[in-house]
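G., the chain you wanted modeled:
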Amino acid sequence: MIPAVRQERILEILSKNEIKSTESLMEELGISISTLRRDLTKLEQEHKIELLHGGGVKISQRPVELNITTKLNMNKDSKDLIAKKAASLVKEGDVIFLDPSSTTYLMIPYLADKKITVLTNGISHINQLIAYDIPCLMIGGSIKKTTNSCLGPLTETVMQTLYFNKCFLGASGFAIQSGITNHDMNEQVIKTIALKNSEQPYFLLDSSKFGLIAMVKVADLDTYPIITEQIPQELAGYTNFITL
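Predicted structure as tokens:
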């Protein structure tokens, strides 16, 4: 197994466990301690994991960008509840946009019985939409491997010509001081266009992302409806949150 693939596998394992021992990682991956140490050192340098005293390892709490497979395993129960609530807001005949987030991906099974059209720049999303026989349109562009999505000038040009009844967007974090933020400036452009061209936009943000601040601001915290499984106590005064 090449190092990059092995390191993604480590992140997938850690996303399903709060803390994992180095011994159990060695056993599960079938690798030596020296190989594991090299992988863990690289992942720690990238701020994707935290090495704990006593030989424990866990996913970093810093807002770093992980691939969609890893993100799907993180806080999955909360994300699934949010996805189900979001899907309930979609009406017959709607044209909707799903960005390539893990929570919007989990919406797709709940959309299967609706007569709608779904547009997305998420490659994983389009495969799932096809699997559920949901009418869909892929918005192409340059491929971003981490999120398995299309970005860049071509995507932006096409997005400018499209209009939606609703859009459903993820983000890397949300906080009182920074608003809703994301890692990638190109993704921020796509989200901004989707917000502008949608009759009703929604953000899908599980409560574990509260207090995390990524590089690029997408929107103010109180501008658009935010669907979450639990409103953080500090945000009790905000009226734009939709709970389950």
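The longest strand covers residues 198-204.

Shout if anything looks off.
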